[in-house]
Amino acid sequence: NNCWPYPDSVAQAMVKRAEFLADLIKPDGTCPWIGDSQRRSPISYVEHMVRVIEREDLEYEISFGNRGAIPEHTSCWYSWQGLSVMRNGWGVDANYLMFDVGPLGMVHAHEGKLAIEVVAYGRSLIEDLGVHSYSREAPELPYYNLFGNTRGHNTVTVDGLSQMRLVTGPETVDKPLTNPWTTNELFDYLSGDYDNGWGPGQYVEPMASVFESDSYDGLIDTSVVHHRSVIYVKGLVRGDCEYWIVTDYLSGSGEHMYEQLFHFIPTSLEVDQHTKMVKTRTDGEANIVLLPANPDSVELQIVEGRTKPDMQGWYCGAGPNPVPAPCVVYRQTGVPPRCFQTVLWPQRPNESYVPKVTSMGMDSSSWLRVCRPDGGEDVYFSASHKGTYEFGELSFDGAALLVRFDMDGKPTQWSVVGGDEVRWQGKGLVNV
């Protein structure tokens, strides 16, 4: 503003920040509530940088496709931050999922590794809870603990306990993460692990604070490791169905209770206790359907506005005070390995199609079939580690596989994560 140029080092950092924020922007113009975030938009900052560095691709992103030049990418992976965005475009009606597999961070950190946020055709429906207040006064402390604790994020808890990185670390990384990120014309895929143990939650401050830091020297249960993968199955032409599959493996030892959590905005839900299907129901707007692949292996509970025995089912983005909002809980109990696999099926306004989702393996595996509206089906498998896997007429070497079949049962498209070849009926199919 004073017409002096930025020093080179400052300018480079500001450009990187603008690129990151532009890629992270949701179709409603805001950014995800990672850590102590509040619902804000970075568009004004990116607009300023566009004027300074004349980047038409960034202008396209922040104008939702109305100005500038189309970027070379839609989905993205930031390996230092451990953040990915899986999206189908830059318009206000785009599908969008943010997946956080990164380190804790130095400041304003929450115990939400492997959490997601989801936007269905422009409508933000599954959100992180951000932060309501830093106050530790009695009325606010329960919300502070919920929003910073793992149970306030869209991930998995073990025995109702929280991740414990605020005690165990690590806060940062000294080299880019090497998580298996794959993006191609068929899908986006990313996976990550949490293996730092489970405990009572927020016991230390992640930054200098007016409040005293409470040290924690109690037990941390390290007997369970959480591995999560997310795949975004893309539509090949406009109007095709698109969806995500979230796969959670719990490995380790001992008997535990596991909960897969989805925090919704304040909205009405339709529930089918037989199939464990959960669907938002808002006429004239986009909706989303949650479909467990193996409904007989999970319990379903909808929690909204709960205060005892702990806080759950609250939302803090609608005004100055938290309000009740539904939290979908899929629950299992038992000895590892355990697997949750949930299809997140977005619906355009006034669409009604809900796919049939079928588990094709045992409870602890993740072969599934998704029936598409065109009469074909998608077969998908995601493992907790690379290996050789087979089911029926399919086999492959790698970490994950998606094969699309037409209505006559013939494979038309396929791709492997961490591998090169798919075998179907004994014949090799070259990876795309």
What does this structure look like?
With 432 residues, the protein is mainly beta. The chain is 11% helix and 36% strand. The chain contains five helices and 28 strands. It has helices spanning 8-24, 43-53, 56-62, 141-148, 165-168, and strands at residues 76-78, 83-87, 96-100, 116-120, 123-126, 156-158, 162-163, 182-183, 187-194, 198-199, 224-233, 243-252, 256-263, 269-272, 277-280, 287-292, 299-303, 314-315, 323-324, 327-334, 338-347, 357-359, 368-371, 377-391, 394-405, 411-417, 421-424, 427-430. The model has no long low-confidence stretch (mean pLDDT 91).
Task: Label this structure with key terms.
single chain, 432 residues, mainly beta
Quantity of strands, as a count: 28
Structural class: mainly beta
User: What is the average of the pLDDT values?
Assistant: 91
Morphology call: globular
Query: What is the overall number of helices?
Result: 5
What low-confidence regions span 5 or more consecutive residues with pLDDT below 50? Answer: none
What would a concise description of this structure say?
By secondary structure, this protein is mostly beta strands.
